Amino acid sequence: MDKIEILGLEINRVNIFNLLFNKVMFIGYILLGFALFGIYEIIDIRYFSEAANAHASGLDPTNPELKEAMRLAVFGTVGEVNREIPWTLFIVNYMYMIYTGSGIIFLVALAEIMKLHIVEKVAAAFMVAGISMVFAGLFTIATDLNVLNMLSMFTSPNVNAGMWLMLPLYSVYIPFVLFEIYLILTNKRELARRLALVILIMSIGVDLVEYYIQAKLFSMNTARHLWTEFPGLMFYFIISAFVSSLGVMGIVTFLVHRNKVQYKELMSIIRKAMVFFISILALYEVFAYLAVDKDWTLIILFGEFKTMYFGGYILLTLALPFLLLIREGKPYLTVISSLLAIIGGYIGRYIFVYGGNANPMTDRFGTGYEKYDFYSVASSFHYETPHLGEIFIVIGSVGVILVVYSLFDILFSVGKLREHN
Questions:
Q1: Do residue 20 and residue 114 come from a single domain?
Q2: Which among 199, 192, 175, 218 has a CA at the least distance from the CA of 103?
Q3: Rounded Cα gap, residues 130 and 145, in angstroms
Q4: Are 360 and 229 found together in one domain?
Q5: 359 falls in which pLDDT band (50, 70, 90)?
Q6: pLDDT at residue 361 above 60?
């Protein structure tokens, strides 16, 4: 294939049709089509619901039901913070994508520093997969915030808001990762290894800042006070993200490298790493539920989510992958375990976020949403199934991953093995 070289980077010479219209891109477009329909649904419900009209207002302007209908017409009901449902599927997907993507980048940077040559050879594909997931997470949160909220960030800036903390974080982190990918593609290994240490620190920084942002918001509610009372919770996000990250790396290895002689060696490394982090996560789960407040433990272990917790998260993330991977076996067992870890990890995020909606928040005029007393008993359990629009947007975020990865692969052949110096 003909190539163009710019700043030492070889770019494949491809026509626009092959770049934008291939099998992977078509799948991505279909998934993005779901996202566009989901965005349309969300906007329609948020801003164009026919919930109140002038005739009803004239007949009985003080009717409480009319006031509620007008509020719904203005603010909508999907993806918005409210007393009953302060967290949505948008937040689940955002947290999962960001933590898993930065986890992949962290693990690859660690392998670079440790000089694991087999991982160095395929580092480009893994790094691109990681940054693609970060972009997918940002896509999700952008649709959650919507255009009006993002516009108000700049017209009425509040530098203490979570988004203003995210902007400098990702405006620095993403360029550093892209530059690391550039160094890998141009085979500047020594410089890439030095930058890997910076990437390693920044990946942990992403987790810390995201934890701080979400802790500020989660602390509004009884079920969320463990953010401040149990600092070890941060390690749950990091360790569980490593399990999901290795799952993604296992699937990428299968899809991209299964016909290469290094395939079995790669899968063996991923298998060993997954066994290690699954074991650490299992130990953490036991310790965490013995250490945190009993109200939180009862909500998750014996509340509305108990079936999903044991049948989804524990079974798919911990039990089955551990049993499949504990002994050396065929690579296909690692592929199955990787898929289970990805699904189980997502279920774990879902339970955590929606479990946080269990107790309603106060809404005192002039102060906004506030937390109840730490040890008050919830009068009811608040849970609503995610709206179809949210589900479609989450599906579309997978399309973002496919499109970003495909563009990188077609232009730069990130899937090929690269020799190290």
A1: yes
A2: 199
A3: 23
A4: yes
A5: low
A6: no
Tell whether the model's pLDDT for residue 220 goes beyond 60: no
Selection from 87, 59, 19, 136 nearest residue 395 by Cα = 136
Q: Per the structure, how many domains does the chain have?
A: 2
Residue 352 half-sphere exposure toward CB, CA atoms < 13 A:
24
Q: Which whole number is the average pLDDT over 205-221?
A: 66
C-alpha closest to that of 414 among 124, 81, 48: 124
Dump pLDDT digits (tens) for 142-185: 887 766 666 766 777 666 666 666 776 788 888 989 998 998 88
Both 376 and 414 in one domain: the answer is no
Residue given tokens 């890439």 in the structure block: 192
How far is Cα of residue 127 from the mean position of the Cα atoms in its chain? 16
Strands 9-12 and 368-370, bridge-based pairing? unpaired
d(CA 278, CA 290): 19
Query: Could you tell me which of 217, 215, 373 has the C-alpha nearest to residue 293?
Result: 373
Looking at residue 255, its amino acid is: L
pLDDT of amino acid 365: 40
Per-residue pLDDT reduced to its tens digit, 260-295? 888 999 999 999 999 999 999 999 888 877 776 666
User: Are 379 and 392 in a shared domain?
Assistant: no
Q: What are phi and psi of 405, to 5 degrees?
A: -65, -45
Instruction: Note whether residue 85 is domain-resident.
Output: no
Token pair in block for residue 133 = 């997931």
Q: What is the pTM of this model?
A: 0.84
102 and 154 in a single domain? The answer is: yes
Q: Record the tokens describing residue 116, joined without a space.
A: 């694991």
